[in-house]
Amino acid sequence: MQRRHLIQTAGLTALALSMSLAGAQDNSKFKIGLILPMTGQQASTGRQIEAAARLYMAQNGDTVAGRKIELIVKDDVATPDVTKRLAQELIVNDKVNVIAGFGVTPAALAAAPLATQSKTPQVVMAAATSSITEASPYIVRSSFTLPQVSVAMGDWAPKNGVKTVVTLVADYGPGNDAEKFFSERFQLNGGKVIEKLRVPLRNPDFAPFLQKVRDAKPDALFVFVPSGAGAAVMKQFLERGMDKAGIKMIATGDVTDDDQLNDMGDGALGVVTSHHYSAAHPSPANKKFVEAFQKANPKMRPNFMAVGGYDGMRVIYEALKATKGQGGGDALLAAMKGQIFESPRGPVYIDAQTRDIVQDVYLRKVEKKDGQLYNVEFDVIKGVKDPGKK
Ligand code: PHB
Questions:
Q1: What is the distance, to the nearest Å, from the Cα of residue 263 to the centroid of all Cα atoms in its chain?
Q2: Ligand 1 contact, 44 CB (< 6 A)
Q3: Sign of CA dihedral 192, 384, 375, 200
Q4: Distance 305 CA to ligand 1 centre (A)
């Protein structure tokens, strides 16, 4: 009896010891689960964010407050069911300290309940529907919101000869936000929205929509499509001779995405967009960022997704430092709120109330510089909060 008891006790002690050793080992690591669309229609977003996250780690070291940072990248193909499964596995099996990434709105929303249940900070680096941050108190956003950038265009266009508009947006969260916030502001400024068109998110054929626009003959077509889809809209817009028919294109900067802009051809010259980041942003911090990014990724130009990823890593790193490497979800979250810093895009902060990023929004025009197409900034609205929040 006694012997058996002794052996059992020894066994339990060994198990407890090995568990606590494993725990200690695990604790020395700080794991970031990066869920991104690495394949499929949204793959450029995944490619850009992963490259930027790795650049941030190369520049800032992979040990923070005594914890070794481990980046675990998972491909969700921008499919919310997959996002949810991956988030669950990362939280439960891999015991990640933070989940991050989220290339599209449905993906960010699918992970939100898991972040709440497990008290895991969720850093949204891409998705941009206003309401996302309300889906979980554990969400912090380093990207932008569509209302933030669309309102700027609603102010600019009517002051610059655009009196009538047709809107054309991808038919889901961010597109609906862009349509609503651009239209409301444009109309408030005396403009007239003749028609509101919505195209499907998956494999859209823009031709029938552009025909409608031609028939309606507005001064301008306002466009939002997600990063990666802009080149297709631009191509069909030009092929149909819309510009020659006297219809201007105005858009959010998602359309003249730096990832694709240089391949759009000279037809894109002169297109005015509003957005929070351009690779041509003329600050020393951005020049350094673009140079380092292109050195590490010779065939790529960083776009706004890359900057969302880079700044999201900054938010995580600084929160880990501020909490002295402890890594608890609530403490990390508290340390993410209110961070103020100089991003490659310009000065930003994480609003402690809304957990959304507050930033400058720029008006830009596509111009040629050194033989390449860029979004060249010509005006700025400072410190824009998300207008979508009540
Ligand atoms: C989104 O799904 O929230 C989204 C994706 C790409 C963008 C903007 C918003 O460029």
A1: 22
A2: no
A3: negative
A4: 9
Kindly compute the dihedral angle of the four CA atoms of residues 177, 182, 187, 191, in this order, to the nearest 10 degrees: -150
* Single-letter amino acid code for the residue at 174: P
User: Mutation test of ligand 1: which of 35, 45, 124, 254 has the most ligand atoms closer than 8 Å to its C-beta?
Assistant: 254
Are residues 113 and 80 in contact, defined by beta-carbon separation less than 8 angstroms? no
Q: Which tens digit of pLDDT belongs to each residue from 229-278?
A: 999 999 999 999 999 999 999 999 999 999 999 999 999 999 999 999 99
pLDDT in tens, 284-308: 999 999 999 999 999 999 999 999 9
* Ligand 1, atom nearest to 104 Cα: 2
CA of 127 to the centre of ligand 1 (A): 5
What one-character-per-residue DSSP string does 277-322 give? --TT---HHHHHHHHHHHHHSTT----HHHHHHHHHHHHHHHHHHH
Kindly state the DSSP code that residue 34 receives in the 8-state scheme: E
DSSP bridge partners of 224: 169
Cα separation, 145 vs 129, in Å, equals 6
For residue 324, the 8-state DSSP code is: T
Indicate if ligand 1 lies below 6 Å from the C-beta of 227.
Answer: yes
pLDDT for res 389: 87
Average pLDDT, the chain: 94
Residues 6+ away with beta carbon under 8 Å from 65: 320, 321, 323, 324, 325
Q: What is the pLDDT of residues 318-360, one digit of tens each?
A: 999 999 999 899 999 999 999 999 999 999 999 999 999 999 9
- H-helix or E-strand containing 38? none
Vertex 351 angle, CA 348 and 355, to 5°: 115
Write b or e for each residue in 100-116: b if 16 or more Cβ atoms lie within 10 A of its Cβ, otherwise e: bbbbbbbbbbbbbebbe
Helices (H), 123-224: 146-159, 173-188, 207-216
Alpha-carbon distance 255 to 224, whole Å? 6
φ and ψ at 268, to 5 degrees? -80, -15
Residue 57 parent element (H or E)? helix 43-60
**Alpha-carbon span 15 to 10, nearest angstrom:** 9
Element (H, E) at 124: strand 122-124
